[in-house]
From TrEMBL:
Protein name: ICOS ligand
Species per Swiss-Prot/TrEMBL record: Piliocolobus tephrosceles
Stretches assigned to the Ig-like domain: 6-129, 141-227
Protein's UniProt keywords contain Transmembrane helix: yes
CDD domains with a match to the protein in the record: IgV_B7-H2
GO biological process: adaptive immune response; B cell activation; positive regulation of activated T cell proliferation; regulation of cytokine production; T cell receptor signaling pathway
């Protein structure tokens, strides 16, 4: 018996009830990932004897397959066409792993790999189910400046985008690192056009003179917590910048020190000039001047 068409092979595959090996793998959105399905090292297979089939476990979507003397992949779903490949050289060595390119959030599924041998009466050689977990980093949260819709209430808004899977959102009292009551927040989480999650969380709390809170976006799969704080004093004064008075005082002291040194040098120069001038006058009366001394006095006096 020979299964010459993909349709007959798919029918046979759907009727099998094997107990496959279970594996898990994680991949970031946009990356490439390998879904492992391999026999022990040292195995060898004839590509004209084996049938290899990959499909999603739940939706039964055809990912890719290998059928001897049939290179057609017309039955491959369009979502995986040119994105899911197996290596012929690897298959000869018993490695039927699937290489999946440019991972998307829609790829988060269970993938079933099945290998049959024609020479063994289409006996199952290998059966593996690989669960693919997909993840994407959320952007650093942006916490808006608090505003006061009423005299008794403050409102904060926290936004983060392009993450996966669906996040958890927490508001934190950073004074003691305690979690605020989730009844105080209203979260909106939705899928954007890329299939990734955007989240907007609005927190409403009682107005107080000073508030120090943080917004935390948790990605459980990546074990990642992104926290950004929003500390306020009196509302309207959070952006005020006060220059450091200590630094100003130090600069002033340095300036006065430099001026004092310059004044001292001038005083010493003047004193030396007067001494030399007095000696020159005495020598001039005694008739002992020299041209060099005259030149020196001229420079000092100038």
């Amino acid at each position: 018996m020979r299964l010459g068409s993909p349709g007959l092979f798919l029918l046979l595959f759907s009727s099998l009830r094997a107990d496959p090996q279970q594996k898990e793998v994680r991949a970031m959105v946009g990356s490439d990932v390998e879904l492992s399905c391999a026999c022990p090292e040292g195995s060898h297979f004839d590509l004209n004897d084996i049938y290899v089939y990959w499909q999603t476990s739940e939706s039964k979507t055809v990912v890719t397959y290998h059928i001897p003397q049939n290179s057609s992949l017309d039955n491959v779903d369009s979502h995986y066409r040119n994105r899911a490949l197996m290596s012929p050289a690897g298959m000869r060595q018993g490695d039927f792993s699937l290489r999946l390119f440019n991972v998307t959030p829609q790829d988060e599924q269970k993938f079933h790999c099945l290998v049959l041998s024609q020479s063994l009466g289409f006996q199952e050689v290998l059966s593996v189910v690989v669960t693919l977990h997909v993840a994407a980093n959320f952007s650093v949260p942006v916490v808006s400046t608090p505003h006061s819709p009423s005299q008794d209430e403050l409102t904060f808004t926290c936004t983060s985008i392009n993450g996966y899977p669906r996040p958890n959102v927490y508001w934190i009292n950073k004074t003691d690192n305690s979690l605020l009551d989730q009844a105080l927040q209203n979260d909106t989480v939705f899928l954007n056009t890329r299939g990734l999650y955007d989240v907007v969380s609005v927190l409403r709390i009682a107005r107080t003179p000073s508030v120090n809170i943080g917004c935390c976006i948790e990605n459980v799969l990546l074990r990642q917590n992104l926290t950004v704080g929003s500390q306020t004093g009196h509302i309207g004064e959070r952006d005020k910048i006060t220059e450091n008075p200590v630094g100003t005082l130090e600069k002033t002291e340095v300036t006065w020190s430099v001026l004092a040194v310059l004044c001292l040098l001038v005083a010493v120069a003047v004193a030396i000039g007067w001494v030399c001038r007095d000696r020159w006058l005495r020598r001039s009366y005694a008739g002992r001047d020299s041209p060099i001394l005259w030149m020196l006095m001229f420079v000092l006096l100038v």
